[in-house]
Amino acid sequence: MQIYSCWADLSLENVLLANKKGGPVYLIDYSMATTKRFHTGPACGKASYIAPEMHLGDYDAFQADVFSCGVILYALFAKDYPWISTRAGACKCFEYVRTHGFLKFMSKRRIIVGNDKKPVQQVMSPSFTQLLDGLLRFKPEDRLVLLEAQPGTTSEAKSFDELNRHLDSPTWTGNRIRPEQ
């Protein structure tokens, strides 16, 4: 029997790198991790990483973790958070994303590169920008699932059964994914 869990508090502060040259990545702080996929209740976690739907009550914890992964990747690249909060009305940057979309935000947001400030979109590769756009979609049903973000998977997979058929293929070296409903 496989057990799948949601972190519910994924953040850059809970990621440890084994060394500077690569190697294992460790996730720490299991205090809010759960095997329950669907949740009802108040949002928990760090304000920058909380998926927008968590503020509304009912949410899919797996998709909320996907959103948090997007924030982590952005923060690693830009050395800054994309926004300070995802609560409605709490952050102008996130309100801009909600209104105009992440790609438009990327063309406006600036980061320091050397001695210059440049738009993130000019510094980031188009494929990485696309990945972040998929991970940080406002609506969870529009967000990538982690399998869609891995090389060799296809977005045509419509169900966990179809995804697991791909995972059972001889070319796949990872784990099967079947969250409990």
TrEMBL record:
User: Which keywords does the record carry?
Assistant: ATP-binding, Kinase, Nucleotide-binding, Serine/threonine-protein kinase, Transferase
Q: Which PROSITE patterns match?
A: PROTEIN_KINASE_DOM (PS50011)
Please name the SUPFAM superfamilies in this protein's record: Protein kinase-like (PK-like)
Keyword check for Nucleotide-binding: yes
Q: Which Gene3D superfamilies match?
A: Transferase(Phosphotransferase) domain 1 (1.10.510.10)
What EC number is given for this enzyme? 2.7.11.1
Q: Which positions fall inside the Protein kinase domain?
A: 1-153
- Group of enzyme by EC: transferase
Give the catalytic activity: L-threonyl-[protein] + ATP = O-phospho-L-threonyl-[protein] + ADP + H(+); L-seryl-[protein] + ATP = O-phospho-L-seryl-[protein] + ADP + H(+)
PANTHER family, alphabetized: CALCIUM/CALMODULIN-DEPENDENT PROTEIN KINASE KINASE-RELATED (PTHR43895), SERINE_THREONINE-PROTEIN KINASE CHK1 (PTHR43895:SF32)
The identity of this protein, by name, is non-specific serine/threonine protein kinase
